[in-house]
Design goal:
Strand content of chain A: 15-25%
Largest interface: A-B, 56 and 56 residues
Number of strands of chain A: 17
CATH class of the largest domain in chain A: Alpha Beta
Largest sheet of chain A: 11 strands, mixed
Oligomer: homodimer
Structural class of chain A: alpha/beta
Chain lengths: 403, 403
């Protein structure tokens, strides 16, 4: 029998219990053993719940029980998860987590600690929910030099942008609706400001380059400034605005950023809508690949966590090699990166003035919008764009355009 | 040092050498050792080739060399690959192969033999070329009850159908052009008759259900009967014709088939064009996921083979668990499966006669096609459709419609 303890009986935690309950037979066949949920750690009691008898309030009951082989950490947030996970690994228990804050902040260190104790620290569910992406990067795309990862990694913002595009509504209205439907948190900051996507691309980039990429180093811009007018222009250009999390190797430079971007009909992520996530990967041998699915939600996320539990059960006393050392990887300042830029200026400045500053631009018109001008710049370095845009005091908004 | 031997210095074999040569540094970091190509087995000599000194003509040189840890089998075909691989596994060497004929015919047996010898038999490249799909099924989607896999698994036929759609040309013309460009073999039977896709879906279905699915049991229909007229009708319906390889669980039934199908704009594989492959997976917890990329080609396929070499190197003396036993899985006869059917009849039979036989149909018209009628049936069982269609002696073609 393989005993697990689930830390946190919230959405993902109860999903883990449901996945194991529903697919118990085939899971047991795959691990050639019986999987048993021995404890669930939560501050609350759950009277009447089928799992009531397994609820404990004190982590030391779990960590000191030698019969517990695998810890499922789905508490979210760095503490107390970090302390709990370190203790578990030190005591020879493997850990499966969906906690992107924890993995982004301490992934490399926890992988090393797991290795030292011949157990595993697994985190498939921390990026892309139910979409297999961590293990494919770590075990399948290993013969590649990965030169680009671009992902729609946050379901909430993708839902909001899709709705804004479909309904022509403004950000605030769609956010309110999403909150009512439970697609957005009451405090939506982590999603709409891009912090969630930032942690996820930090994790993917670390795995792609084998070193520690600190999420604090990643330029991050959310979607709060995207307006119905921006969406209308995007439609006029037959493009879509998506919150993209990107890492790109250009020569010796490694760029990493999270920001809304305009993408065209030929972009591999153009059809990733609603709460879905999509992750595009480019390797020097493989060329392009794409992974698509449900990037969030109780059961898809729990399915990825349980898959990690199965991997841990299949690798008892064998540490799965993970290419992610604690050595810090420096990112190149995005001032050196190149894009086109879609720009809206409030006043009716003539094209000639604009082109004096930006070079040859493509003017854009959208139905029903007047008293402003909009255009797309040529490809330019971010630092040159910043200098140029600073010359205008009437900037309504600008959005990077994928090239 | 980890020594490998490559069996077959053809397209994929030389790709394996190129991938290892190009990405040697990062590969060595990932295996924490040095990967060395000790032998290449080929009947030919390669004077002047940088690998010339490693060419051997006699397999016994390789199989009897205890320094060889991993065998790369990229010969294709069942024999002599089967004999070579069995010998390698028995002697404690892991095997990485791209050979779908071998895996479909003997996968379960070779996995068992590898386990017995505490080595690995890995075959990521046998399906989907560079797209990670075997390992995701075997290690990531393990908490799922997978109820559907539908794939565009053959790049050649997808290229032909895409070209027929773009140019309005007939099958034979596009095939000839594809052969000239090297996208189709001189003997194209395995691709265009669906045999290649059949072996691939047999492998995926075996992994999804954990038992042996014999490819000989899978109903297989190629694309040779698809005409420019069929494509014209598809366009009129805003649909596309794709060669789909499908496994579907419906209650206790397991259906598996390869055939051209009409799919609509909302189908997850609608944008998989040219030589690209796409694999759609539905699980009971995960809901929908999709994997997309280059399903063939020298470097993408070789990249998947080398990833398996890396896994084998990371798992020396540890057999990775694979959920695929030798127990045979019976498929349900597709007579019990349900579809809609697109039908073309030569004579101008009136709608009332057609509806007497098929029930309520949707008539379809395509510009420039007269002297025939075309319609889409309601959803019906294959066996009822066969009875119905047998009542007409003027059938031009029929194509199943995805529902």
């Amino acid at each position: 029998m393989i005993n697990i303890a689930v830390l946190g009986y919230g959405t993902v935690g109860s999903g883990v219990v449901e996945v194991i309950g529903t697919n118990q037979d085939s899971i047991n066949k795959k691990i050639e053993d019986e999987l048993n949920i021995k404890y669930i750690l939560d501050l609350r009691d759950f009277p009447g719940d089928p799992m009531e008898s397994r609820i404990v309030h004190d982590y030391s009951v779990i960590s000191s029980d030698d019969e517990v082989d695998i810890i499922v950490e789905v508490l979210g947030g760095v503490e107390p998860a970090y302390t709990f996970v370190k203790e578990a690994l030190s005591k020879g228990k493997s850990v499966a987590t969906s906690n992107k804050e924890l993995v982004a902040a301490h992934g490399a260190e926890l992988i090393a600690l797991a290795k030292q104790n011949k157990v595993n620290f697994l985190f498939e569910a921390s990026v892309g929910g139910g979409i297999p992406i961590i293990r494919p990067l770590n075990s399948s795309l290993t013969a590649e030099n990965i030169t680009e990862i671009t992902g729609i990694l946050n379901g909430t913002t993708n839902y909001i942008l899709t709705k804004m595009t479909e309904d022509g509504s403004d950000f605030e209205d769609v956010l309110r609706e999403a909150q009512e439907k439970g697609y957005a948190e009451r405090n939506p900051e982590a999603d709409v400001e891009g912090y969630d996507a930032c942690r996820k691309i930090a994790i993917l980039t670390s795995l792609a380059c084998g070193k520690q990429v600190d999420y604090q180093d990643i330029y991050t811009e959310g979607i709060t400034k995207i307006s119905a007018a921006d969406i209308r222009y995007a439609k006029a250009m037959k493009q879509s605005i998506k919150l993209l999390a990107t890492m790109k190797k250009v020569g010796q430079n490694l760029f990493c950023m999270v920001c809304p971007m305009l993408i065209g009909q030929n972009h591999p992520l153009i059809n990733v809508n609603d709460v879905f996530n999509g992750i595009f990967v480019h390797g020097n041998m493989l060329d392009d690949a794409m992974f698509y699915g449900r990037g969030a939600g109780k059961l898809p996320t729990a399915s990825a966590v349980v898959a990690d539990v199965i991997e841990a059960a299949r690798h008892r006393h064998v540490s799965i090699k993970t290419y992610w050392s604690t050595e810090k990887k420096e990112l190149t300042n995005i001032d050196e990166s190149i894009h086109k830029y879609f720009v809206r200026l409030k006043k009716n400045i003539d094209e000639t003035t604009v082109e004096t500053v930006f070079g040859r631009v493509e003017m854009v018109k959208a139905q029903g919008i007047s008293d402003e001008i909009a255009f797309v710049t040529p490809i330019m370095e971010e630092k040159d764009f910043k200098k140029a845009i600073a010359q205008f005091d009437s900037v309504l908004n600008y959005i990077r355009v994928a090239i």
